[in-house]
């Protein structure tokens, strides 16, 4: 393949030096083998879904890239594990902390991404210190996923947390539990996380004026229960974030939105949606 500036022959082309940042953003949603890849004029959206009950979206804004050329709406499915492995080809010997997305590295990897047209593979060219490698990843048909419409009129409750506080909460809960319950109320306890399992029940309460809560809006008392095994990928992603927005709609569906800052003041978002147990049971 010609490595010169031949992006004009492709419907999508992007280049960046933020390879480690991107690979770790994608690791935060790496709980299934495959993912939907959707490129727009605003950036790239990667969607992973489990049994139509848990959905994760990683948003890679075009500002992350040095060059971003987009000619039409692009949608396909891709093997996420292979995609991440390719991005990490030059980082096998690097010790990287999941809590340090803004960590600096002396040797930067440069990435170019090409996509020619429907049915063609996604081409990655990676270069570090003059050493170049290319990867060709097979693309598949885009897979339909659940549509979660969290419109403002449907949002019953919303809380914005400092991530460090939620990390501490979930370090204390029973990881072997079957069910995790979230309670949000205008009266005390304003926010409660409870777990239920073979070891019994455990709950942790936070008042709305807690130092770890930056914003609290509660229209009505609401509590929803979730299958803990489904929520685990969303809880793991807390380690990558600086702030977390938790929202619940009228049906008790849960939305976690994670804000992730880059060292150059670029902000990315990861979003998880999870159905409550009653709706989950209807699907299985």
Q: Which CATH architecture of the largest domain is right?
A: Box
The total count of helices amounts to 5
Number of strands: 19
Terminus-to-terminus distance: 47 Å
Helix content: 10-25%
Regarding CATH, which class of the largest domain?
Alpha Beta
Report low-confidence residues grouped into runs of 5 or more. 93-106
State the shape.
elongated
Could you report the average pLDDT, rounded to the nearest whole number? Answer: 86
CATH topology of the largest domain: Proliferating Cell Nuclear Antigen
Work out the count of structural domains.
2
Oligomer: single chain
Instruction: Strand order, main sheet: write it out.
Output: 10-6-2-3-4-19-18-17-11-15
SSE ordering: EHEEEEEHEEEEEHEEEEEHEEEH
Structural class: alpha+beta
- Using the CA coordinates, give the radius of gyration: 20 Å
- Strand percentage lies at 35-45%
Largest sheet: 10 strands, antiparallel
């Amino acid at each position: 393949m010609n490595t010169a500036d031949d992006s004009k022959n492709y419907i999508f082309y992007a280049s960046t030096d933020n390879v480690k940042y991107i690979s770790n953003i994608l690791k935060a949603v790496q709980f299934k083998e495959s993912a939907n890849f959707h490129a727009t004029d605003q950036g790239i959206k990667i969607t992973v879904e489990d049994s139509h009950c848990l959905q994760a979206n990683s948003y890679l804004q075009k500002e992350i890239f040095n060059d971003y050329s987009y000619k039409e709406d692009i949608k396909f499915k891709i093997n996420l594990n292979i995609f991440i492995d390719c991005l990490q080809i030059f980082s096998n010997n690097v010790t990287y902390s999941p809590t340090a997305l803004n960590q600096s590295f002396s040797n930067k990897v440069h990435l170019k991404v090409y996509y020619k047209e429907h049915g063609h593979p996604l081409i990655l060219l990676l270069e570090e210190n003059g050493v170049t490698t290319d990867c060709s990843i097979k693309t598949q048909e885009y897979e339909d996923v659940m549509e979660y419409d969290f419109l403002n009129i449907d949002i019953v409750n919303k809380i914005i947390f400092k991530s460090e506080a939620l990390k501490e909460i979930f370090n204390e809960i029973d990881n072997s539990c079957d069910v995790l319950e979230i309670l949000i109320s205008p009266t005390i306890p304003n926010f409660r996380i409870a777990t239920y399992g073979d070891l019994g029940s455990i709950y942790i309460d936070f008042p709305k004026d807690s130092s770890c809560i930056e914003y609290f809006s509660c229209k009505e008392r609401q509590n929803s229960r979730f299958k803990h095994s489904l929520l685990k990928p969303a809880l793991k992603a807390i380690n990558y974030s600086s702030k977390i927005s938790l929202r619940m709609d009228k049906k008790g569906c849960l939305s976690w939105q994670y804000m992730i800052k880059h060292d150059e003041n670029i902000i990315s978002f990861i979003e998880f949606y999870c159905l409550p147990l009653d709706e989950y049971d209807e699907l299985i």
